[in-house]
Amino acid sequence: LESWLRHLLEWNPVTRGKDDKGQIVVFSQLDSILRLRSVKVMNMRSRAISHFTQETSKLDHHNFTQWISSDLGIPEGDQLLLTSHGYRISAEDQLQQFVHAEHPIFVYDLRRLQLTLNDQLKQIQLNIPQLVQYFLRDARMKLVDYHHKLMYIHGFHFISEEYEKHRLFTMGLGALNSYVKNEAAKLSSSPVLSSHFIAVKAKLDFHNLSLDQDLKRYEEQSSGKDRITSNKMIHNWKQSKSQLVKALDSIHARVSILEESSRTFSGAIKIVNEESLQQQQQQLDRSLQECETRALQLYDSLRRERAAVRVDNTPRAMAQLTVRMLKFRDELLNSSCAQLVNMRQLLLDLQDLRAGELAVVKACEKLEASILRSQNRRQSEIWTLVSVAIKYIPQNSQKEETSSGNREVNDLDKESVEINLDTTQQQALIQENLDLRHGLDEKLKSLETAITNQL
Q1: DSSP helix/strand/coil, 455
Q2: Is 93 within 8 Å of 75 (Cβ atoms)?
Protein backbone atom coordinates (compact mmCIF):
# COMPACT_ATOMS: atom_id res chain seq x y z
CA LEU A 1 0.00 0.00 0.00
CA GLU A 2 2.91 2.40 0.51
CA SER A 3 3.52 3.13 -3.18
CA TRP A 4 -0.19 3.63 -3.80
CA LEU A 5 -0.56 5.99 -0.83
CA ARG A 6 2.48 8.03 -1.88
CA HIS A 7 0.99 8.59 -5.32
CA LEU A 8 -2.47 9.32 -3.91
CA LEU A 9 -1.32 11.76 -1.21
CA GLU A 10 1.18 13.66 -3.34
CA TRP A 11 1.18 17.33 -2.31
CA ASN A 12 1.62 18.67 -5.82
CA PRO A 13 -1.72 18.40 -7.65
CA VAL A 14 0.06 18.20 -11.03
CA THR A 15 1.86 14.92 -10.14
CA ARG A 16 -0.73 13.59 -7.74
CA GLY A 17 -1.85 10.04 -8.64
CA LYS A 18 0.58 9.85 -11.57
CA ASP A 19 3.84 8.10 -12.27
CA ASP A 20 7.07 9.58 -13.66
CA LYS A 21 5.64 9.61 -17.18
CA GLY A 22 2.55 11.55 -16.15
CA GLN A 23 0.15 8.62 -16.45
CA ILE A 24 -2.54 8.12 -13.81
CA VAL A 25 -1.69 4.86 -12.01
CA VAL A 26 -3.57 4.99 -8.70
CA PHE A 27 -6.66 3.25 -10.09
CA SER A 28 -4.71 0.42 -11.74
CA GLN A 29 -2.63 0.05 -8.57
CA LEU A 30 -5.76 -0.14 -6.44
CA ASP A 31 -7.23 -2.72 -8.80
CA SER A 32 -4.06 -4.82 -8.53
CA ILE A 33 -4.14 -4.56 -4.73
CA LEU A 34 -7.77 -5.64 -4.58
CA ARG A 35 -7.00 -8.66 -6.76
CA LEU A 36 -4.43 -9.98 -4.29
CA ARG A 37 -5.31 -13.02 -2.19
CA SER A 38 -3.60 -13.94 1.08
CA VAL A 39 -3.10 -17.33 2.75
CA LYS A 40 -2.23 -17.44 6.43
CA VAL A 41 0.73 -19.67 7.28
CA MET A 42 2.23 -20.69 10.61
CA ASN A 43 5.82 -21.92 10.75
CA MET A 44 5.85 -24.54 13.51
CA ARG A 45 9.60 -24.33 13.91
CA SER A 46 9.76 -20.62 14.72
CA ARG A 47 6.12 -20.19 15.86
CA ALA A 48 5.83 -17.24 13.49
CA ILE A 49 2.75 -16.33 11.47
CA SER A 50 3.24 -15.18 7.86
CA HIS A 51 1.01 -14.43 4.89
CA PHE A 52 1.45 -15.68 1.33
CA THR A 53 0.01 -12.95 -0.90
CA GLN A 54 -0.40 -13.40 -4.65
CA GLU A 55 -2.86 -12.77 -7.43
CA THR A 56 -5.51 -15.41 -7.97
CA SER A 57 -3.82 -16.70 -11.13
CA LYS A 58 -0.51 -17.24 -9.28
CA LEU A 59 -2.05 -18.75 -6.16
CA ASP A 60 -0.91 -22.34 -6.75
CA HIS A 61 1.01 -25.00 -4.90
CA HIS A 62 4.26 -24.51 -6.83
CA ASN A 63 4.52 -20.78 -6.06
CA PHE A 64 3.46 -21.46 -2.49
CA THR A 65 6.26 -23.97 -1.84
CA GLN A 66 8.79 -21.68 -3.53
CA TRP A 67 7.72 -18.82 -1.26
CA ILE A 68 8.10 -21.04 1.82
CA SER A 69 11.58 -22.05 0.62
CA SER A 70 12.70 -18.44 0.07
CA ASP A 71 10.98 -16.68 3.00
CA LEU A 72 10.84 -19.38 5.68
CA GLY A 73 14.07 -21.18 4.72
CA ILE A 74 12.56 -24.66 4.38
CA PRO A 75 13.55 -26.54 1.17
CA GLU A 76 10.70 -27.64 -1.06
CA GLY A 77 11.47 -31.34 -0.62
CA ASP A 78 11.42 -31.05 3.20
CA GLN A 79 8.09 -29.26 3.62
CA LEU A 80 5.06 -30.80 5.30
CA LEU A 81 1.89 -28.73 4.86
CA LEU A 82 -1.04 -29.68 7.09
CA THR A 83 -4.46 -28.30 7.79
CA SER A 84 -5.86 -28.04 11.31
CA HIS A 85 -7.41 -31.53 10.90
CA GLY A 86 -4.13 -33.21 9.96
CA TYR A 87 -4.77 -33.38 6.19
CA ARG A 88 -1.63 -33.08 4.07
CA ILE A 89 -1.84 -30.45 1.33
CA SER A 90 -0.46 -31.62 -2.00
CA ALA A 91 -0.13 -30.22 -5.52
CA GLU A 92 -3.64 -31.47 -6.37
CA ASP A 93 -5.26 -29.18 -3.79
CA GLN A 94 -6.42 -25.68 -4.67
CA LEU A 95 -4.99 -22.96 -2.42
CA GLN A 96 -7.95 -20.73 -3.21
CA GLN A 97 -10.00 -22.59 -0.60
CA PHE A 98 -7.57 -21.52 2.16
CA VAL A 99 -7.84 -17.77 1.46
CA HIS A 100 -10.79 -17.25 3.81
CA ALA A 101 -9.99 -20.20 6.08
CA GLU A 102 -10.39 -19.70 9.82
CA HIS A 103 -7.15 -21.49 10.68
CA PRO A 104 -3.75 -21.15 9.00
CA ILE A 105 -1.77 -23.73 7.09
CA PHE A 106 0.82 -25.33 9.38
CA VAL A 107 4.31 -25.79 7.91
CA TYR A 108 6.73 -28.35 9.36
CA ASP A 109 10.42 -28.78 8.60
CA LEU A 110 11.29 -32.40 7.75
CA ARG A 111 15.03 -31.92 7.35
CA ARG A 112 17.08 -34.48 9.24
CA LEU A 113 18.46 -32.07 11.79
CA GLN A 114 19.35 -33.28 15.26
CA LEU A 115 17.06 -30.80 17.00
CA THR A 116 16.94 -30.95 20.76
CA LEU A 117 14.59 -29.06 23.03
CA ASN A 118 17.14 -26.27 23.51
CA ASP A 119 17.64 -25.96 19.74
CA GLN A 120 13.89 -25.74 19.22
CA LEU A 121 13.48 -23.10 21.93
CA LYS A 122 16.23 -21.00 20.34
CA GLN A 123 14.24 -20.87 17.11
CA ILE A 124 11.37 -19.07 18.87
CA GLN A 125 11.85 -15.34 19.35
CA LEU A 126 9.97 -13.07 21.74
CA ASN A 127 9.26 -9.61 20.34
CA ILE A 128 8.16 -7.27 23.13
CA PRO A 129 6.76 -3.88 22.00
CA GLN A 130 8.73 -0.81 22.98
CA LEU A 131 6.09 0.63 25.31
CA VAL A 132 5.71 -2.73 27.04
CA GLN A 133 9.46 -2.77 27.62
CA TYR A 134 9.22 0.63 29.25
CA PHE A 135 6.66 -0.31 31.89
CA LEU A 136 8.36 -3.66 32.49
CA ARG A 137 11.59 -1.83 33.33
CA ASP A 138 9.89 0.70 35.59
CA ALA A 139 6.37 -0.19 36.73
CA ARG A 140 6.18 2.83 39.13
CA MET A 141 6.65 5.60 36.62
CA LYS A 142 4.02 8.36 36.67
CA LEU A 143 2.10 8.62 33.41
CA VAL A 144 -0.26 11.09 31.87
CA ASP A 145 -3.64 9.79 30.74
CA TYR A 146 -2.67 9.44 27.05
CA HIS A 147 0.51 7.46 27.71
CA HIS A 148 -1.24 5.45 30.40
CA LYS A 149 -3.95 4.25 28.03
CA LEU A 150 -1.43 3.68 25.23
CA MET A 151 0.69 1.41 27.41
CA TYR A 152 -2.36 -0.57 28.49
CA ILE A 153 -3.42 -0.95 24.86
CA HIS A 154 0.01 -2.26 23.87
CA GLY A 155 0.09 -4.55 26.89
CA PHE A 156 -3.30 -6.03 26.04
CA HIS A 157 -2.36 -6.65 22.39
CA PHE A 158 0.95 -8.20 23.43
CA ILE A 159 -0.79 -10.65 25.77
CA SER A 160 -3.52 -11.36 23.21
CA GLU A 161 -0.94 -12.04 20.50
CA GLU A 162 0.96 -14.50 22.71
CA TYR A 163 -2.25 -16.29 23.57
CA GLU A 164 -3.19 -16.57 19.88
CA LYS A 165 0.25 -17.93 18.97
CA HIS A 166 0.07 -20.57 21.68
CA ARG A 167 -3.45 -21.52 20.64
CA LEU A 168 -2.40 -21.99 17.02
CA PHE A 169 0.81 -23.75 18.08
CA THR A 170 -1.22 -26.25 20.12
CA MET A 171 -3.55 -26.70 17.16
CA GLY A 172 -0.53 -27.41 14.96
CA LEU A 173 0.69 -30.04 17.41
CA GLY A 174 -2.72 -31.70 17.29
CA ALA A 175 -2.67 -31.65 13.47
CA LEU A 176 0.78 -33.25 13.41
CA ASN A 177 -0.31 -35.85 15.95
CA SER A 178 -3.35 -36.77 13.84
CA TYR A 179 -1.23 -37.00 10.69
CA VAL A 180 1.38 -39.25 12.33
CA LYS A 181 -1.33 -41.50 13.78
CA ASN A 182 -3.09 -41.87 10.42
CA GLU A 183 0.13 -42.64 8.60
CA ALA A 184 1.15 -45.15 11.26
CA ALA A 185 -2.24 -46.86 10.97
CA LYS A 186 -1.81 -47.11 7.19
CA LEU A 187 1.66 -48.55 7.63
CA SER A 188 0.58 -51.16 10.19
CA SER A 189 -2.52 -52.24 8.21
CA SER A 190 -0.73 -52.49 4.88
CA PRO A 191 -0.05 -56.17 3.95
CA VAL A 192 2.35 -55.22 1.16
CA LEU A 193 5.51 -56.22 2.98
CA SER A 194 4.28 -59.61 4.21
CA SER A 195 2.59 -60.47 0.91
CA HIS A 196 5.73 -59.75 -1.12
CA PHE A 197 7.93 -61.78 1.22
CA ILE A 198 5.52 -64.75 1.34
CA ALA A 199 5.18 -64.73 -2.46
CA VAL A 200 8.92 -64.68 -3.12
CA LYS A 201 9.52 -67.35 -0.45
CA ALA A 202 6.94 -69.64 -2.08
CA LYS A 203 8.57 -69.16 -5.48
CA LEU A 204 12.00 -69.94 -4.06
CA ASP A 205 10.65 -73.06 -2.34
CA PHE A 206 9.18 -74.23 -5.63
CA HIS A 207 12.47 -73.43 -7.38
CA ASN A 208 14.48 -75.45 -4.83
CA LEU A 209 12.01 -78.36 -5.03
CA SER A 210 12.27 -78.56 -8.80
CA LEU A 211 16.05 -78.24 -8.54
CA ASP A 212 16.20 -81.19 -6.15
CA GLN A 213 14.13 -83.25 -8.58
CA ASP A 214 16.43 -82.34 -11.47
CA LEU A 215 19.53 -83.17 -9.42
CA LYS A 216 18.04 -86.51 -8.43
CA ARG A 217 17.31 -87.45 -12.05
CA TYR A 218 20.72 -86.22 -13.11
CA GLU A 219 22.40 -88.44 -10.51
CA GLU A 220 20.33 -91.41 -11.66
CA GLN A 221 21.42 -91.09 -15.29
CA SER A 222 25.01 -90.19 -14.37
CA SER A 223 25.38 -93.42 -12.42
CA GLY A 224 24.61 -95.47 -15.52
CA LYS A 225 27.05 -96.75 -18.11
CA ASP A 226 25.93 -94.42 -20.90
CA ARG A 227 25.96 -91.22 -18.93
CA ILE A 228 26.08 -87.57 -19.95
CA THR A 229 27.51 -85.20 -17.35
CA SER A 230 28.56 -81.57 -16.90
CA ASN A 231 30.24 -80.72 -13.62
CA LYS A 232 30.29 -77.02 -14.44
CA MET A 233 26.52 -77.00 -14.97
CA ILE A 234 25.83 -78.75 -11.66
CA HIS A 235 28.19 -76.38 -9.88
CA ASN A 236 26.33 -73.39 -11.34
CA TRP A 237 23.00 -74.85 -10.22
CA LYS A 238 24.13 -75.33 -6.65
CA GLN A 239 25.86 -71.94 -6.51
CA SER A 240 22.73 -70.22 -7.82
CA LYS A 241 20.65 -71.99 -5.17
CA SER A 242 22.97 -70.89 -2.36
CA GLN A 243 22.95 -67.30 -3.59
CA LEU A 244 19.15 -67.20 -3.78
CA VAL A 245 18.80 -68.70 -0.29
CA LYS A 246 21.31 -66.19 1.05
CA ALA A 247 19.38 -63.32 -0.54
CA LEU A 248 16.12 -64.60 0.99
CA ASP A 249 17.74 -64.84 4.43
CA SER A 250 18.94 -61.25 4.08
CA ILE A 251 15.42 -60.11 3.20
CA HIS A 252 14.00 -62.07 6.13
CA ALA A 253 16.43 -60.36 8.50
CA ARG A 254 15.45 -56.94 7.15
CA VAL A 255 11.76 -57.81 7.52
CA SER A 256 12.36 -58.83 11.14
CA ILE A 257 14.16 -55.54 11.82
CA LEU A 258 11.29 -53.58 10.25
CA GLU A 259 8.72 -55.46 12.31
CA GLU A 260 10.64 -54.74 15.51
CA SER A 261 11.00 -51.08 14.54
CA SER A 262 7.30 -50.93 13.77
CA ARG A 263 6.43 -52.29 17.22
CA THR A 264 8.76 -49.77 18.83
CA PHE A 265 7.18 -47.01 16.78
CA SER A 266 3.69 -48.11 17.80
CA GLY A 267 4.72 -47.98 21.45
CA ALA A 268 6.10 -44.47 21.02
CA ILE A 269 2.86 -43.40 19.33
CA LYS A 270 0.89 -44.54 22.38
CA ILE A 271 3.09 -42.44 24.64
CA VAL A 272 2.61 -39.27 22.60
CA ASN A 273 -1.17 -39.26 22.53
CA GLU A 274 -3.85 -36.64 22.47
CA GLU A 275 -4.37 -36.73 26.23
CA SER A 276 -1.27 -34.63 26.77
CA LEU A 277 -2.45 -32.22 24.10
CA GLN A 278 -5.86 -31.94 25.75
CA GLN A 279 -4.26 -31.34 29.14
CA GLN A 280 -2.07 -28.65 27.62
CA GLN A 281 -5.11 -27.04 25.99
CA GLN A 282 -6.94 -27.00 29.32
CA GLN A 283 -3.92 -25.51 31.04
CA LEU A 284 -3.68 -22.97 28.24
CA ASP A 285 -7.31 -21.97 28.76
CA ARG A 286 -6.73 -21.53 32.49
CA SER A 287 -3.60 -19.41 32.15
CA LEU A 288 -3.07 -17.31 29.04
CA GLN A 289 -6.74 -16.85 28.29
CA GLU A 290 -7.33 -15.59 31.81
CA CYS A 291 -4.45 -13.16 31.35
CA GLU A 292 -5.96 -11.91 28.09
CA THR A 293 -9.36 -11.42 29.69
CA ARG A 294 -7.82 -9.66 32.69
CA ALA A 295 -5.78 -7.34 30.43
CA LEU A 296 -8.92 -6.33 28.57
CA GLN A 297 -10.69 -5.64 31.87
CA LEU A 298 -7.81 -3.48 33.06
CA TYR A 299 -7.90 -1.36 29.94
CA ASP A 300 -11.70 -1.10 30.01
CA SER A 301 -11.70 0.09 33.60
CA LEU A 302 -8.90 2.56 32.83
CA ARG A 303 -10.81 3.90 29.85
CA ARG A 304 -14.00 4.39 31.89
CA GLU A 305 -12.20 6.05 34.78
CA ARG A 306 -11.66 9.82 34.68
CA ALA A 307 -8.04 10.87 34.72
CA ALA A 308 -8.69 13.58 37.32
CA VAL A 309 -9.96 11.16 39.96
CA ARG A 310 -7.57 8.32 39.12
CA VAL A 311 -5.59 7.20 42.16
CA ASP A 312 -2.91 5.05 40.49
CA ASN A 313 -1.20 6.70 37.51
CA THR A 314 1.40 3.95 37.10
CA PRO A 315 1.30 0.89 34.74
CA ARG A 316 1.95 -1.45 37.67
CA ALA A 317 -1.22 -3.57 37.23
CA MET A 318 -0.50 -4.23 33.53
CA ALA A 319 3.19 -4.89 34.26
CA GLN A 320 2.31 -7.48 36.91
CA LEU A 321 -0.15 -9.16 34.56
CA THR A 322 2.43 -9.19 31.74
CA VAL A 323 5.06 -10.80 33.97
CA ARG A 324 2.52 -13.40 35.02
CA MET A 325 1.70 -14.10 31.37
CA LEU A 326 5.38 -14.48 30.48
CA LYS A 327 5.79 -17.00 33.28
CA PHE A 328 2.88 -19.10 31.99
CA ARG A 329 4.21 -18.69 28.45
CA ASP A 330 7.62 -20.12 29.31
CA GLU A 331 6.10 -23.15 31.03
CA LEU A 332 3.74 -23.90 28.17
CA LEU A 333 6.42 -23.25 25.58
CA ASN A 334 8.77 -25.79 27.16
CA SER A 335 6.13 -28.53 27.21
CA SER A 336 4.79 -27.80 23.72
CA CYS A 337 8.26 -27.61 22.16
CA ALA A 338 9.18 -30.91 23.81
CA GLN A 339 6.12 -32.52 22.24
CA LEU A 340 7.00 -31.00 18.87
CA VAL A 341 10.52 -32.44 19.03
CA ASN A 342 9.15 -35.89 19.98
CA MET A 343 6.51 -35.95 17.25
CA ARG A 344 8.96 -34.66 14.68
CA GLN A 345 11.27 -37.56 15.55
CA LEU A 346 8.32 -39.94 15.22
CA LEU A 347 7.62 -38.49 11.79
CA LEU A 348 11.22 -39.06 10.71
CA ASP A 349 11.04 -42.63 12.07
CA LEU A 350 7.88 -43.14 10.04
CA GLN A 351 9.68 -42.01 6.91
CA ASP A 352 12.51 -44.44 7.69
CA LEU A 353 10.01 -47.27 8.05
CA ARG A 354 8.46 -46.41 4.71
CA ALA A 355 11.86 -46.26 3.05
CA GLY A 356 12.79 -49.61 4.60
CA GLU A 357 9.53 -51.17 3.44
CA LEU A 358 10.08 -49.88 -0.08
CA ALA A 359 13.64 -51.25 -0.07
CA VAL A 360 12.38 -54.69 1.02
CA VAL A 361 9.72 -54.68 -1.70
CA LYS A 362 12.34 -53.83 -4.33
CA ALA A 363 14.63 -56.55 -2.96
CA CYS A 364 11.77 -59.07 -3.20
CA GLU A 365 11.09 -58.05 -6.80
CA LYS A 366 14.79 -58.36 -7.61
CA LEU A 367 14.98 -61.80 -5.99
CA GLU A 368 11.86 -62.89 -7.85
CA ALA A 369 13.48 -61.90 -11.15
CA SER A 370 16.65 -63.79 -10.16
CA ILE A 371 14.61 -66.93 -9.40
CA LEU A 372 12.94 -66.70 -12.79
CA ARG A 373 16.29 -66.30 -14.57
CA SER A 374 17.74 -69.24 -12.67
CA GLN A 375 14.74 -71.41 -13.52
CA ASN A 376 14.91 -70.50 -17.21
CA ARG A 377 18.65 -71.06 -17.33
CA ARG A 378 18.35 -74.49 -15.72
CA GLN A 379 15.53 -75.45 -18.08
CA SER A 380 17.65 -74.40 -21.04
CA GLU A 381 20.59 -76.47 -19.82
CA ILE A 382 18.33 -79.48 -19.31
CA TRP A 383 17.16 -79.19 -22.92
CA THR A 384 20.79 -79.03 -23.93
CA LEU A 385 21.45 -82.32 -22.10
CA VAL A 386 18.45 -83.89 -23.83
CA SER A 387 19.67 -82.78 -27.25
CA VAL A 388 23.12 -84.27 -26.59
CA ALA A 389 21.52 -87.49 -25.37
CA ILE A 390 19.46 -87.75 -28.56
CA LYS A 391 22.60 -87.46 -30.68
CA TYR A 392 24.53 -90.02 -28.63
CA ILE A 393 24.37 -93.68 -29.87
CA PRO A 394 25.74 -96.25 -27.42
CA GLN A 395 28.04 -98.90 -28.95
CA ASN A 396 27.31 -101.94 -26.80
CA SER A 397 27.40 -104.47 -29.65
CA GLN A 398 30.53 -104.06 -31.74
CA LYS A 399 32.08 -106.86 -33.73
CA GLU A 400 35.18 -108.60 -32.40
CA GLU A 401 38.22 -108.33 -34.62
CA THR A 402 39.65 -111.74 -35.46
CA SER A 403 43.19 -110.42 -36.00
CA SER A 404 43.80 -109.46 -32.39
CA GLY A 405 41.31 -111.80 -30.72
CA ASN A 406 40.62 -109.11 -28.18
CA ARG A 407 37.38 -107.12 -27.82
CA GLU A 408 37.75 -103.42 -28.55
CA VAL A 409 35.50 -101.27 -26.42
CA ASN A 410 34.44 -97.71 -27.43
CA ASP A 411 35.60 -94.96 -25.11
CA LEU A 412 31.98 -94.07 -24.45
CA ASP A 413 31.48 -97.49 -22.86
CA LYS A 414 34.27 -97.04 -20.40
CA GLU A 415 33.09 -96.09 -16.96
CA SER A 416 36.02 -93.77 -16.52
CA VAL A 417 35.15 -91.69 -19.55
CA GLU A 418 32.45 -89.04 -19.40
CA ILE A 419 30.98 -86.76 -22.00
CA ASN A 420 31.76 -83.25 -20.81
CA LEU A 421 29.02 -80.92 -21.92
CA ASP A 422 29.89 -77.65 -23.53
CA THR A 423 27.11 -75.24 -22.67
CA THR A 424 28.43 -72.27 -24.65
CA GLN A 425 26.15 -72.93 -27.63
CA GLN A 426 22.92 -73.74 -25.83
CA GLN A 427 20.64 -71.79 -28.13
CA ALA A 428 21.97 -73.53 -31.22
CA LEU A 429 21.51 -76.95 -29.60
CA ILE A 430 18.01 -76.08 -28.49
CA GLN A 431 17.09 -75.00 -32.00
CA GLU A 432 18.57 -78.19 -33.39
CA ASN A 433 16.54 -80.19 -30.89
CA LEU A 434 13.37 -78.37 -31.90
CA ASP A 435 14.05 -79.05 -35.57
CA LEU A 436 14.61 -82.72 -34.80
CA ARG A 437 11.36 -82.87 -32.86
CA HIS A 438 9.53 -81.20 -35.73
CA GLY A 439 10.93 -83.82 -38.14
CA LEU A 440 9.82 -86.65 -35.90
CA ASP A 441 6.32 -85.18 -35.71
CA GLU A 442 6.13 -85.03 -39.50
CA LYS A 443 7.22 -88.68 -39.82
CA LEU A 444 4.63 -89.75 -37.26
CA LYS A 445 1.89 -87.92 -39.11
CA SER A 446 2.87 -89.52 -42.44
CA LEU A 447 2.96 -92.96 -40.79
CA GLU A 448 -0.50 -92.46 -39.31
CA THR A 449 -1.82 -91.39 -42.71
CA ALA A 450 -0.37 -94.48 -44.37
CA ILE A 451 -1.91 -96.80 -41.78
CA THR A 452 -5.26 -95.11 -42.14
CA ASN A 453 -5.21 -95.53 -45.92
CA GLN A 454 -4.40 -99.23 -45.62
CA LEU A 455 -7.34 -99.75 -43.28
Answers
A1: coil
A2: no
Are the beta carbons of 346 and 180 closer than 8 angstroms? yes
Burial class of 149 by CB neighbour count within 10 A (0 to 12, 13 to 18, 19+): middle
Spatial CA neighbour of 73 closest among 105, 38, 111: 111
Longest dimension (CA), the chain: 153
Whole-number Å distance between alpha carbons of 95 and 65: 11
| CB 76 within 8 Å of CB 65 | yes
**pLDDT tens-digit series, residues 178-234:** 888 888 877 766 666 778 888 888 888 988 888 888 888 888 877 777 677 778 888
Contacts with 125 (C-beta within 8 Å, 6 or more apart), sequence order: 46, 48
Could you report how far apart the first and last alpha carbons of the chain are, in Å?
A: 109
CA atoms of 325 and 322, how far apart (whole Å): 5
The 10 Å CB-count burial string (b at 16+, else e) for 201-221 is: eebbeebeeebeebeeebeee
Cα–Cα distance between 109 and 231 in angstroms, integer? 60
DSSP3 helix / strand / coil % (the chain, rounded to 5): 70, 5, 25
CB 110 within 8 A of CB 75: no
Q: Please answer whether residues 38 and 56 qualify as being in contact, where contact means their C-beta atoms are separated by less than 8 angstroms.
A: no
- Rounded to 5 degrees, φ, ψ at 26 are -65, -35
Provide the CA 411 distance to its chain's centre, in angstroms. Answer: 67
Tens of pLDDT, residue by residue over 334-367, are 888 888 888 888 888 888 888 888 888 899 899 9
